[in-house]
Write a structure and sequence with these properties.
The chain is of the alpha+beta class and 892 residues long. The chain has a 6-stranded mixed β-sheet. A 5-stranded mixed β-barrel has the order 12-13-14-16-15. A 4-stranded mixed β-sheet has the order 19-18-17-20. A hairpin with a 6-residue loop joins strand 12 and strand 13.
Length: 892
């Protein structure tokens, strides 16, 4: 725009102004001044000013229109110009991030800025770009699905008339886990069972031969989930295109014709010099935004509940990153719902390293990956952080590079800085070395490391130093992670953890809303709501999640009061969006519903049919009008009356004498017995997919915590492990073995953290089937399948089961008090503890464990004389002495 002569001049103006705003300083600090000038010089020289301006423009528009934008992802977070333009939100100078990792002046290639937006509003940003640059100049990008090993086996098997179950069994024999995926040819060569099938007969050989020929070919075309391309003019002047109907993808608005899609994929577009970007939808941004807005709706401002500090950014950009309570929660195991750190592996590593600073989050994000884990790098980092191993450096003078990671090469940027400092590489040339380490080309790695050794020696370092460094770079550099990406995503991790620690109700409501359509995730986070009391002061019983209510619920989960969440109507099975919208519109127009019939009368029965109404009743959404059995019994008459009145109104029916008809009295609810707890919970689970008004395990909550918390996705982390879990049996399907005619069972169980499939074979089933009845609350023992074919949904092979009610008195539980050597306890702590123990006598011994926080080198003392009741009252009494989260039941 005027008065700027071109894109270059405008970019320099925006970057200068943005940097002054970011650093609140004019003139800029020398380090910032130098870095900004350097980056601008490279950007202008390479001709990418327009790229930055386009990105700045649509991100600015998104922020101005209240659309949450991520802090950055990938190497773009290493650019100071991106930070100045508010394309990213992480200071690259403070974070030690490198511009050359993003745009290498010595190996020029198209910069790659991937942007995360709120997943609900991503389409609005794409529409803005279409409107600004022309609908014919903006398109989404094709992606070609290829015939991968398992898919090609299934496709070829179908053509060759194999039974579906047979090809599915064969396909699952081929590993497809990340980093361990086999081609069909590799499976035939390396896997004994597959090789045996190949040699079994001509038919199976034909299946594998055809599959090997077809594997890797394109199977179908679809639209890339995030890619968008912008052309200087009509897209068809530059690349081949096709169209897709509106509404087929996120971003369509139903107007102005179909969307344009390129027929070149991402790689071909880059080769053609086209401007492509990734517009990604990230649910975490929506969760953060919704939680902050909910806090503001309740309190009128977003503030720290303890210090009173007021924060003004809906994106939490002004929340300090050094809150010790947040790190204490993470280190004590409160990672469920925290972005990037929900896995058991992440939880274990944060707990082991006693996470206490932002750098720990960044490092853990980089270290919980197969390479660092398999190489021992992750455990080495933890041991050095805890002072159990000395911090050493591969060469003198590298402290300023490796001190934050205790002398270990964790990030790709560290490889680049070492090459620059010790070998005299430019950072651009160092990026070439970094890329070589990430490739599996042995000859290229050998060549680059030889050059590195030579340069190190030339600069006066001993040959053994050069060799040691090269060896470490080869070992650790190969697994090194992009610090820019890890830091940017760790920022989101911290924000979610901060919300969970200080505003748990608003955070959990937003989190539950983000997974409305995923039953297993809702179960997991409902379980977490109940467990919050373990590490959250003031929430001894966790957060209560109330059933849906047509007078209080919205589409999403909402907060009622400070520590209660109201279930969202959008999560009730069989009740569509149109029905919920009708309910919410009627409530907004006419106020709360007062009676069952009054509710039905105000909702169009075409939007809310009888089946949907039954689902609402079963879910508890109409409890304010009567008990559920009563509402179901009266539904037919009430719904029929509403339909009849609607039909009469539409026909304009009048009374015999021509005047308006006299309205018939509303049908009354019949008098019937209430459902018992079993019936109520069973119907609730059918309507919602899980229990909400109660859980069969509620009375055994503390006992259940002493055993394995498995279910849902957590089983994937436990493949091959023996487990012991408290659960309720929700379904039993008896089966007959085709091999020997014996009876076995496929059992579905549910714990606080999700569901699991349990397979009880012949002898185990015969001995345990009386225990394993539907609705039984049991303790089961078994082993999680480690078969490759089960990797997507591993079952548990049952070894035995017993009623859970007998476990507390069986002598298999102890009450553990977990302390650390540096804990400061009141002088009378153990005197007060003796009082609790005396009042709560029972059969569980008391043990005290004192350790360093990582589970190692712990001292354990178990009392032979003091025994207590293993229940909630005992735990609460001892927690009042030693602190929340310090006391719990464990297996003896």
């Amino acid at each position: 725009p005027a008065p700027f002569a071109d894109d270059n001049e405008y970019l320099v103006h925006l970057a200068e102004a943005g940097a002054r705003e970011r650093y609140k300083d004019d003139p800029l600090p020398p380090e910032v001044r130098q870095r900004l000038d350097y980056e601008l010089e490279v950007i202008l020289k390479t001709g990418y000013a327009g790229y930055f301006l386009i990105t700045w423009d649509f991100i600015r528009w998104a922020r101005e229109n209240g659309i949450p934008v991520g802090p950055g992802r990938g190497s773009a977070a290493g650019s100071l110009v991106s930070y100045a333009l508010r394309i990213t939100d992480l200071d690259p100078i403070a974070g030690g991030l490198l511009f050359e990792r993003f745009l290498n002046p010595e190996r020029i290639s198209m910069p790659d800025i991937d942007i995360d937006f709120c997943y609900e509003r991503r389409g609005e940003v794409i529409e803005y770009v279409r409107a600004k640059y022309g609908r014919d100049a903006v398109g989404q990008i094709v992606t070609f699905g290829t015939m991968k090993s398992r898919a090609v086996i299934r496709d070829v098997g179908r053509v060759l008339k194999f039974e579906v179950a047979e090809t599915d069994r064969i396909a699952k024999m081929i590993p497809n886990q990340p980093g361990q995926a086999y081609t069909v040819a590799q499976a035939v060569e390396r896997i004994r069972d597959v090789k045996a099938l190949y040699e079994l007969d001509e038919r199976h050989k034909q299946l594998f031969d055809y599959s090997m020929t077809l594997e890797g070919l394109s199977r179908h075309a679809s639209v890339h989930a995030a890619g968008v391309v912008i052309a200087p003019g009509p897209l068809h002047d530059y690349v081949p295109i096709c169209t897709q109907s509106k509404g087929a993808r996120n971003g369509g608005d139903g107007e102005d014709g179909p969307d344009i899609v390129t027929q070149y994929d991402m790689n071909c577009l880059e080769d053609a010099g086209m401007l492509k970007m990734d517009f990604l939808g990230l649910k975490t941004l929506t969760v953060i935004h919704d939680a902050v807005r909910a806090v503001k709706d309740r309190l009128a401002e977003f503030r720290h509940p303890d210090t009173g500090a007021v924060y003004h950014s809906d994106a939490m950009d002004d929340v300090p990153l050094d809150d010790s309570e947040v790190y204490r929660m993470l280190a004590s195991g409160g990672t469920s719902g925290v972005f990037q750190f929900e896995s058991n592996l992440a939880l274990d590593k944060l707990r082991a390293m006693r996470c206490d600073r932002f750098d720990d989050l960044v490092a853990t994000n980089a270290l919980i990956r197969p390479g660092p884990l398999d190489s021992g790098m992750t455990d080495e980092y933890i041991q050095r952080k805890l002072g159990k191993k000395p911090v050493s450096y591969p060469a003198p003078g590298l402290e300023h590079i490796l001190e934050p990671t205790y002398g270990i090469i964790v990030y790709q940027e560290q490889v680049m800085l070492i090459a620059s400092d010790l070998a005299g590489y430019s950072l651009g040339d160092a990026d070439v070395l970094r890329k070589a380490m990430g490739k599996k080309d042995a000859e290229l790695i050998r060549k680059e490391l030889a050059r590195f050794r030579e340069r190190v020696v030339e600069r006066g370092h001993p040959p053994n130093t050069a060799n040691d460094l090269a060896s470490q770079i080869e070992t650790f550099g190969r697994y090194g992670f992009n610090k820019s990406h890890s830091a940017a995503y760790s920022l989101l991790s911290y924000k979610t953890a901060w919300l969970k620690r200080y505003y748990p109700a608003e955070f959990m409501a937003a989190l539950l809303s983000s997974v409305l359509d995923k039953t297993d995730d809702v179960v997991k986070y409902m379980g977490e709501c109940r467990e919050l009391g373990r590490y959250h002061p003031g929430l001894d019983d966790g957060l209560e999640v109330l059933p849906p209510d047509v007078n209080e619920s919205g589409w999403k989960f909402t907060v009622v009061g400070g520590a209660t969440i109201r279930f969202g109507l959008g999560a009730v099975r069989g009740v569509g969006e149109a029905a919920v919208r009708s309910i919410l519109d009627a409530r907004e127009e006419g106020g709360p519903f007062d009676t069952f019939f009054g509710f039905l009368k105000r909702i169009d029965p075409r939007a809310l049919n009888k089946r949907a109404c039954e689902a609402l009743i079963a879910a508890g959404a109409l409890d304010s009008f009567g008990h559920r059995a009563q509402l179901v019994a009266g539904l037919d008459e009430a719904h029929g009356e509403v339909v009849a009145r609607l039909q009469e109104a539409e026909m304009g029916q009048q009374s015999l004498f021509g005047g308006p008809g006299v309205e018939r009295p509303a049908p009354s609810l019949p008098t019937v017995p209430e459902w018992d707890d079993r019936e109520r919970l069973a119907r609730e689970k059918e309507a919602l997919g899980f229990f909400i008004s109660g859980h069969p395990l509620d009375r055994y909550r503390e006992v259940a915590r002493a055993f394995d918390q498995v279910g849902g996705d957590t089983l994937k982390d436990r493949m091959g492990d023996s487990v012991e879990m408290a659960c309720v049996v929700t379904a039993v399907a008896r089966q007959i073995s085709r091999r020997d005619g014996s009876e076995w069972a496929k059992i579905t169980v549910e714990g606080f953290h999700g569901t699991a499939t349990v397979l009880a074979f012949k002898d185990v089933w015969q001995s345990g089937k009386e225990t394993l009845r539907t609705d039984a609350v049991v303790l089961l023992r078994g082993k999680v399948s480690d078969r490759e074919r089960d990797e997507e949904d591993p079952p548990i092979f049952l070894d035995g089961a017993e009623p859970l009610r007998g476990v507390p008195d069986s002598g298999r539980l102890a009450v553990r008090i977990a302390l650390e050597w540096d804990d400061e306890l009141p002088e009378d702590a153990f005197d007060r503890a003796r009082v609790v123990v005396a009042e709560r006598t029972g059969g569980a011994p008391v043990e005290v464990v004192v350790g360093n926080g990582d589970g190692a080198d712990a001292s354990r003392l178990r009392s032979r004389s003091f025994k207590v009741a293993p229940d909630r009252e005992t735990i609460r009494g001892l927690e009042a002495v030693f602190g929340k989260g310090r006391v719990g039941l464990v297996k003896v």
